[in-house]
Automatic annotation (TrEMBL):
Belongs to the kynureninase family. It catalyses: 3-hydroxy-L-kynurenine + H2O = 3-hydroxyanthranilate + L-alanine + H(+); L-kynurenine + H2O = anthranilate + L-alanine + H(+). It comes from the Bacteria. Pyridoxal 5'-phosphate binds at residues 105-106, 133-136, 218, 221, 243, 274, 302. InterPro entries: Kynureninase (IPR010111), PyrdxlP-dep_Trfase (IPR015424), PyrdxlP-dep_Trfase_major (IPR015421), PyrdxlP-dep_Trfase_small (IPR015422). It comes from Maribacter arenosus. Keywords: Hydrolase, Pyridine nucleotide biosynthesis, Pyridoxal phosphate. The gene is kynU. Catalyzes the cleavage of L-kynurenine (L-Kyn) and L-3-hydroxykynurenine (L-3OHKyn) into anthranilic acid (AA) and 3-hydroxyanthranilic acid (3-OHAA), respectively. This is Kynureninase. GO terms for molecular function: kynureninase activity.
Length: 424
């Protein structure tokens, strides 16, 4: 498609956009009385308007039924979480039984490490990307120390090449090959939070498995953003949060995936609690743990229903639209944003560059040369909510559910004004 950097052209794209009506399904923050241009769906997705009614339903059931709500609420609480498994399975490319929703992301990753990081004398190393999301670094380091090992000798980071802003799959595969029998776990963020790169999860997973390692993915920036086939790729485990592209509210619950082949095993090392034991006999309060045959075996506590309600609401929107339509619009709107950025970069001659590689999802990361922070502050004042990462990167994620092509055009105009104002 031949793009144009004009309001009329952007509006034409909006008219043809099959998802244009979904914008109205979300609450937009306002700055100076106008809806903002929202680029931070990769950090905290906007609130769907129907979320309130899902929370109200739980509050009302609690008000009217008290403890009876566990079994007699409109959506009974004791198995509320099970309603999320089917829609999530579609989004993650999983079987329903491979999905559970519980706790929060970093907590779940720790719990999954109990099962999938079991170092031995000879096989103990972890492979990850350099400068992983800080929580992932802390989690790996503390897990390693917990096992009495030294992080410096255990955690191996794949580096970007000098002068490049992205990781090369071939470098990751070479490292896996090199570590071979020593490699216990490959653990990477499927979509990098900083540069927006989408890793070749299928190829990397296969390579990890071929040397006998477990392979797990942090999908915080992948869930609800890119096409996933966790089951077919034979990923061992994955976890993600629900508040980024999944629009389920600040700090909300996390989903986990555990491959079918690890389910239904009594001897799986795992931290256990009463909600992981078989539903049928749970309330007999027996002293012996009998795991559920599903990923719910990893559930420790009874579900946080007030947190799951907004997640369930949001998943209804995903059900209605489907990942395919979201990805189709995502590709076009990100390409349009890229086009506009390049147009502006030409006009203001090289004050910034896009560092996101072609393997990407919804996010473009823009590296600002020279004065970055004042420009970012200027944009915020003009009603653009974007996100700043040190030293000099603005992350822009035009979430296809609610961002418009007109937003992209208007952003371009503001960016140009802002840069010219800084230069003057
Ligand atoms: C957002 C994000 C997290 C956040 O973890 P919480 O436990 O939900 O605070 C973790 N890892 C990655 C890669 C992220 O992008």
């Amino acid at each position: 498609m031949q793009f144009q950097n004009s309001l009329a052209f952007a509006q034409q794209l909006d008219e043809k956009d099959e998802l244009r009506n979904y914008r109205k399904e979300f609450h937009f923050p306002q700055i100076a009385g106008k809806d903002v241009i929202y680029f931070t769906g990769n950090s905290l997705g906007l609130q769907p308007k129907m979320t309130q009614s899902y929370i109200d339903e739980v509050m009302n059931d609690w008000k009217e039924l008290g403890v009876e709500g566990h079994f007699h609420a409109n959506k009974p609480w004791w198995d509320y979480h099970e309603r999320l498994a089917a829609p999530l399975a579609k989004i993650m490319g999983a079987q329903e039984e491979e999905i559970s929703v519980m706790n929060t992301l970093s907590v779940n990753l720790h719990l999954l490490m109990v099962s999938f990081f079991r170092p031995t004398k000879s096989r103990y190393k972890i492979l990850c990307e350099e400068k992983a999301f800080p929580s992932d670094q802390y989690l790996l380091q503390s897990q390693v120390r917990f096992h009495g090992l030294n992080p410096n000798e255990t955690i191996v980071e794949v580096k970007k090449r000098k002068g490049e802003h992205f990781w090369r799959t071939e470098d990751i595969l070479a490292k896996i090959e090199e570590l071979g029998d020593e490699l216990a776990l490959v653990f990477i963020g499927g979509v990098n939070y900083y540069n927006g790169q989408v890793f070749d999860m299928q190829t990397i997973t296969q390579a990890g498995k071929s040397v006998g390692a477990y392979v797990g993915w942090d999908l915080a920036h992948a869930a609800g953003n890119i096409a996933l086939k966790l089951h077919d790729w034979e990923v061992d485990f994955a976890a993600w949060c629900s508040y980024k592209y999944m629009n389920s509210g600040p700090g909300n619950a996390s989903g986990v995936f555990i491959h079918q082949k690890h389910l239904g095993q009594n001897d799986m090392p795992r931290f256990e609690g009463w909600w992981g034991t078989k539903k049928e006999t749970r309330f007999l309060m027996k002293p012996i743990f009998e795991p559920m045959d599903t990923a719910d075996a990893w559930q420790i506590s009874n579900p946080p229903v007030l947190a799951l309600a907004p997640y369930l609401a949001s998943l209804q929107l995903f059900e209605a639209v489907g990942m395919e339509a979201l990805i189709k619009k995502r590709n076009t709107i990100v390409a349009y944003l890229e086009f506009i950025l390049n147009e502006i970069a030409n006009e203001v001659s090289g004050t910034f560059e896009i560092i996101t590689p072609k393997d990407r999802g919804c996010q473009l990361s823009v590296f600002l040369h020279g004065q970055g922070r004042p420009l970012f502050d200027y944009l915020m004042k003009q009603g653009v909510i974007a996100d700043w990462r040190e030293p000099n990167v603005i992350r822009l994620a035009p979430a296809p559910f609610y961002c418009s092509y007109e937003d992209m055009f208007r952003f371009g105009q503001l960016l140009k004004e802002g840069i010219l104002a800084q230069i003057d």
